[in-house]
TrEMBL record:
Its EC number is 3.6.5.4. Its main location: cytoplasm. Belongs to the GTP-binding SRP family. SRP54 subfamily. It comes from Dictyobacter vulcani. This is Signal recognition particle protein. The chain holds residues 1 to 299 of 495 of the full protein. Part of the signal recognition particle protein translocation system, which is composed of SRP and FtsY. GO terms for molecular function: 7S RNA binding; GTP binding; GTPase activity. It comes from the Bacteria. One of its GO terms (biological process) is SRP-dependent cotranslational protein targeting to membrane. Involved in targeting and insertion of nascent membrane proteins into the cytoplasmic membrane. Binds to the hydrophobic signal sequence of the ribosome-nascent chain (RNC) as it emerges from the ribosomes. The SRP-RNC complex is then targeted to the cytoplasmic membrane where it interacts with the SRP receptor FtsY. Composed of three domains: the N-terminal N domain, which is responsible for interactions with the ribosome, the central G domain, which binds GTP, and the C-terminal M domain, which binds the RNA and the signal sequence of the RNC. It catalyses: GTP + H2O = GDP + phosphate + H(+). Keywords: Cytoplasm, GTP-binding, Hydrolase, Nucleotide-binding, Ribonucleoprotein, RNA-binding, Signal recognition particle. It is found in: Cytoplasm.
Length: 299
């Protein structure tokens, strides 16, 4: 499929009417950017973020010379694409986990119930093991009754160790105790599955704040459901204010979601997307590639 087929057709329509060749005039650019803004909003990008993005593109597009054999619409598409990739994290994506230093390094996952946090913990452990790490999964979601058993089952399936404590144990202590266990077992990375709620509440936030404070994790990743679109932006903003996120895992990208939430979240919070969940299986996790998401958003 051609890149941005949908937007590309719409822009061609506009430029054919304008008949613009040579230099892009302000009128050409305005007409084209209306289409770009609509495409972004259709992809679930927040209105304000779409407007900001279009303003950035406009500055670059006006007065740009249409050179070589690029048509006006191709020229605008190229500028939009470059800008989108840049906002989403640049060519190399800025999406690597920071796991240097003395092991075990700690990765803390936070997020709302149902976002895919427990599944993502197992996927991440599986992914990191393939990279030569020795992961330990830690069941610190004592709020959702099934979460501990779910994580244990995933661990068994992957033959990756899971640290857990009986019901009633304090999540902060569980995380702290898991570190000693990780050292004993010579694990190189510890993945904490913390409690989620259906909505953000103070108790949950205090719990994740306490874990972050006590454990000083190297990475604090928000697991967010791409299907929740606009809502994900507010959730990301709240978690970021409370625990300073270092990245995000955007789940359920195998569904219909166009992924506009990633652009909104990145613009509003500055937090980079590091992984995408693309299915329910434990290998359905991939590193985040800004250029691929750009194509998907502009479809
Ligand atoms: P938690 O409450 O955040 O721990 O959520 P779970 O890990 O239990 O996931 C909730 C549901 O979403 C489960 O049915 C998962 O199989 C499903 N899920 C998680 N990640 C993905 C994904 O990337 N794609 C799809 N299609 N389903 C996912």
């Amino acid at each position: 499929m051609a890149m941005f087929e949908n937007l590309s057709k719409r822009l061609e329509g506009i430029f054919n009417n304008l008949g613009g060749q040579g230099t892009l005039t302000e009128e050409d650019v305005n007409a084209a950017l209306r289409e770009v803004r609509l495409a972004l909003i259709e992809a679930d990008v927040n209105l304000k973020v779409a407007r900001q993005f279009v303003d950035r593109v406009k500055e670059k597009a006006i007065g740009a010379n249409v050179t070589g054999n690029l048509s006006s619409s191709q020229q605008v598409l190229a500028i939009v694409n470059d800008e989108l990739v840049e906002v989403l994290g640049g060519e190399d994506g800025n999406n690597k986990l920071d796991l240097g230093g003395t092991p075990p390094q700690i990765i803390m996952l936070v997020g709302l119930q149902g976002s895919g946090k427990t599944t993502s913990a197992a996927k991440l452990a599986n992914y990191l093991r393939k990279q030569g790490q020795r992961p330990l999964l830690v069941a610190a979601d004592m709020y959702r009754p099934a979460a501990v058993n779910q994580l244990k089952a995933l661990g068994r399936q992957l033959t990756i160790p899971v640290y857990s404590e009986p019901a009633g144990a304090d999540p902060v202590d569980i995380c702290a105790n898991s570190l000693a266990y990780a050292r004993e077992q010579a694990c190189s990375v510890v993945i904490l599955d913390t409690a989620g709620r259906l909505n953000i509440d103070e108790r949950m936030m205090n719990e994740v704040i306490n874990i972050r404070h006590r454990l000083q994790p190297r990475e604090v990743l928000l697991v967010a459901d791409a299907m929740t679109g606009q809502e994900a932006v507010r959730v990301a903003d709240d978690f970021n204010r409370a625990v300073s996120l270092t990245g995000m895992i955007l789940t359920k990208m195998d569904g219909d979601a166009r992924g506009g939430a990633a652009l909104s979240i990145r613009t509003v919070t500055g937090v980079p997307v590091k992984f995408m969940g693309i299915g329910e299986k434990t290998d359905a996790l991939e590193p985040f590639y800004p250029d691929r998401l750009a194509s998907r958003i502009l479809g």
